[in-house]
Design brief:
One of its GO terms (molecular function) is cytoskeletal motor activity. Belongs to the FliG family. By secondary structure, this protein is an all-alpha fold. The chain contains 21 helices and 2 strands. The chain has 5 domains: about 60 residues, no CATH class; about 30 residues; about 80 residues, Annexin V, domain 1 (Orthogonal Bundle), CATH 1.10.220; about 40 residues; about 80 residues, Orthogonal Bundle (Annexin V, domain 1), CATH 1.10.220. It has a two-stranded antiparallel ribbon with strand order 1-2. The longest helix is centred in the last third of the chain and has 20 residues.
Length: about 350
C-alpha cells in the first residue's frame, strides 16, 4: 500500500492494520486470537503493505477505535501453520516470533475448524483419499471461496461428485462429524460437536460455484444439467454474479464502493454489463464518475483472467458485507463472468 493510498482513502482493513501495528505485540496478539482465518489474512497482507504511515492517520484510527470499541464482539478461533507463515511475511521473522507464539498459545480447534487455516491445496491433499461423502462434508463446512479453491485441485469427475453431494446435504449426524474429527485428530486437536450440524444444500453449492473459475464453473454446470436439469436450475437461480450488482440498492452500492480500490473497479467494469456501469456511475459524485469513465476509456485491452479476478474480488467483498448485514444483495441469475 502506498503512502498516497493511505492518505487519501483508508478502508476498514487498512484501519485494522494500522491499529494492530500501533498496539504492540502483546495486545495485537490478543486481538488476532479472536479473528477468523480470512480476517487474519486480510489484515496481515495490509500490515505487510503499510509504508510511511503518517501520525495523523494513526490518530484518526485510534480516535475511531475509541468510539466503536463498545460494540466489539469476540469469536473463538484456533490457529495453524498458515497464520505463522502469514504473520512472518507481514512483520518479518524476528518481530513476528513472539507475536505468533502468543497467538498460538492455548489455541485449540476441531479438526474441521483447523482445515480453515490451511492452504486449499493442503486441504485437498488431506481429503483426497477419503470417502466422497467425507469430502463433501469438508467442502460444505469450508467457506465458499476456500471450498472452490479446494475443488480446483481435483479432476472434473471428482468435482462433479462432490458438488452433487454438497447439494443433497442438509444436516449431518453427530456420529459423522465425530468420525471425521477422528480421521483428522492425528494432525489437529479438537472434539466433535454433540449436536446435529446444518451444512450443505443447494444454496451452499451455489455459493461455492460462484467462486470457481468461469471455465470450471461452466463445465460443472453442463455436467450437472445433464444429470439433473432441475438441480442445475436451482443452483443457477441462487448464484450471484457480477452483473447482479445492478440489482443492489443505491445505499448498498455506495457502501460497497467505499471498500473497493479504484484500480480493481476499473478492471472489473471493463467486462461488465452496461447496467452495472450505470449503477456504479449513478452512485458516485459527478467528478468521481467522470474520472472513472476516463480511466475506463484510457485503459487498453486487458486479459479476461484479470477482469475475472477483479470481479471476484469485488464479489467477495460484497458477500462479506452481505453476511455482516451491511448490504443486501439483490437479483439472481446464472450468467457467467466475462
Amino acid at each position: 500500500m502506498s503512502e498516497n493510498r493511505v492518505a487519501t482513502k483508508m478502508n476498514k482493513v487498512d484501519k485494522a492494520a494500522i491499529l494492530l501495528l500501533s498496539l504492540g505485540e502483546t495486545d495485537a496478539a490478543q486481538v488476532l486470537r479472536h479473528l477468523g482465518p480470512k480476517e487474519v489474512q486480510r489484515v496481515g497482507v495490509a500490515m505487510a503493505q503499510m509504508r510511511n504511515i503518517q501520525r495523523e492517520q494513526v490518530e484518526q484510527v485510534m480516535g475511531e477505535f475509541v468510539e466503536i470499541v463498545g460494540d466489539q464482539t469476540s469469536l473463538g478461533v484456533g490457529a495453524d501453520s498458515y497464520i505463522r507463515r502469514m504473520l512472518t511475511q507481514a512483520l518479518g521473522e524476528d518481530k513476528a516470533g513472539n507475536l505468533i507464539d502468543r497467538i498460538l498459545l492455548g489455541g485449540s480447534t476441531s479438526g474441521l475448524d483447523s482445515l480453515k487455516w490451511m492452504e486449499p491445496r493442503a486441504v485437498a491433499d488431506v481429503i483426497r483419499y477419503e470417502h466422497p461423502q467425507i469430502q463433501a462434508i469438508v467442502v460444505a463446512y469450508l467457506d465458499p471461496d476456500q471450498a472452490s479453491e479446494v475443488l480446483s485441485h481435483f479432476d472434473h469427475k471428482v468435482r462433479l461428485d462432490i458438488v452433487l453431494r454438497v447439494s443433497s446435504l442438509n444436516t449431518v449426524q453427530p456420529a459423522a462429524l465425530k468420525e471425521l474429527n477422528l480421521i483428522l485428530e492425528k494432525q489437529f486437536s479438537g472434539s466433535a460437536n454433540s449436536s446435529r450440524a446444518t451444512m450443505g444444500g443447494v444454496k451452499r453449492a451455489a455459493d461455492i460455484m460462484n467462486f470457481l473459475d468461469s471455465s470450471i464453473e461452466g463445465q460443472l454446470m453442463d455436467s450437472i444439467r445433464e444429470m439433473d436439469a432441475d438441480l442445475s436450475s436451482q443452483i443457477e437461480d441462487l448464484m450471484f454474479v457480477f452483473d447482479n450488482l445492478a440489482d443492489v440498492d443505491d445505499r448498498g452500492i455506495q457502501a460497497l464502493l467505499r471498500e473497493v480500490s479504484s484500480d480493481v473497479l476499473v478492471l472489473a467494469l471493463k467486462g461488465s454489463d452496461d447496467a452495472v456501469k450505470e449503477k456504479i456511475f449513478k452512485n458516485m459524485s459527478k467528478r468521481a464518475a467522470e474520472l472513472l469513465r476516463d480511466d475506463l476509456d484510457a485503459r487498453g485491452p486487458v486479459r479476461v483472467s484479470e477482469v475475472e479476478a477483479a470481479q471476484k474480488e469485488i464479489l467477495t467483498i460484497a458477500r462479506r458485507m452481505s453476511e455482516s448485514g451491511e448490504i443486501v444483495l439483490g437479483g439472481k441469475g446464472g450468467e457467467e463472468m466475462l
